[in-house]
Amino acid sequence: MAVLITGGTGYIGSHTIVELLGAGYDIVAMDNFSNSKPAVLDRILEITGKKIKFYQTDMLDKPGMEAMFRENRIDSCIHFAALKAVGESVEKPLLYYKNNVTGTLNLLELTVKYGVGRFVFSSSATVYGKPASVPIREDFPLSPVNPYGQTKLMIEQILTDLAASDSAMSVVILRYFNPVGAHKSGRLGEDPCGIPNNLMPYITQVAEGRLPYLPVYGNDYNTRDGTGVRDYIHIIDLARAHISALEYTQSHSGVECFNIGTGRGYSVFEIIRAYEKATGKRIPYQIAPRRPGDIDECYADPGKANRLLGWRAEYDIEDMCRDADRWQSMNPSGF
Ligand code: WQD
Q1: Hey, what domains does the chain have and what are their CATH numbers?
Q2: N or C: where does the chain have the smaller number of CB atoms within 10 Å of the terminal CB?
């Protein structure tokens, strides 16, 4: 029996496939390469020595997706595929609702048709919007403030209603905080298209000399040093959380949500200092205006995942910086 990975050549999907292969799972993966490259498949083979069944298809191509279910015995699914740029979702909401929500409905109609009863969903801390306090627990109010976050919350609701209609179904929803870092080999990593939106890939490109300095989006937030505080989690820790989630679906039915973070927040200035300490490289920066929609502080209470999934983040912030830097140094232009 195989695990279906949607978005399998993406940053999180590819690192999760490497961990799943290492744990002995058989993998069927799909991607439309809208935000990733076929070279990722070669890297997965290089790292693991194992081939996966891969389909280049799209969530809006239901017949194309159905081939995966007809040609393989799939008993579980980890669903990563989505558009995920917050700013773009504000500019193009219909694109995000169609791709993320309609695409997921297409996928779920197929998982139901082919009896796939175990489902792990890639959600996001963005569903909390601006939290009233930190650390954030799973029972906090859900109030996304952008269309991307709304799509994630809608899909959580769809999964909750679907599981309520089918007592045999088991769903785990993972709400990620800020994934960063790369595989220790330096052969897999985060490879955003164009100028990076996110902090860590921007820093690695400054360290590599591809960008002149880091714009620090605001130093007047209500935080210990005025810059934004986030819960950064190593991509390998995040990938391993999916294996724990998959195992959880084997012994539970219904729906369960988990925050996947370290439980510790770091400011932008603290990340810059950690990166310089971990790599010996200087990261020049300039204070820039706040980015619309950014919040002061966001970090997880990961206690529920620690207790119920038996999962805990193991890597620290310097590991994250060192591994991200190694990836960028070994792949100056990405894949
Ligand atoms: C982190 C901090 C910025 C870039 C986003 C998505 C979220 C999730 C993770 C999908 C903030 C500051 C950033 C830069 C900076 N993605 N920053 N200069 O915004 O917390 O979360 O990515 O699920 O949905 O919203 O992450 O890395 O963009 O920003 O100062 O060049 O770094 O202001 O305080 P964010 P980020």
Answers
A1: 2-181+231-263+304-309 (3.40.50.720), 199-229+264-300+317-330 (3.90.25.10)
A2: N
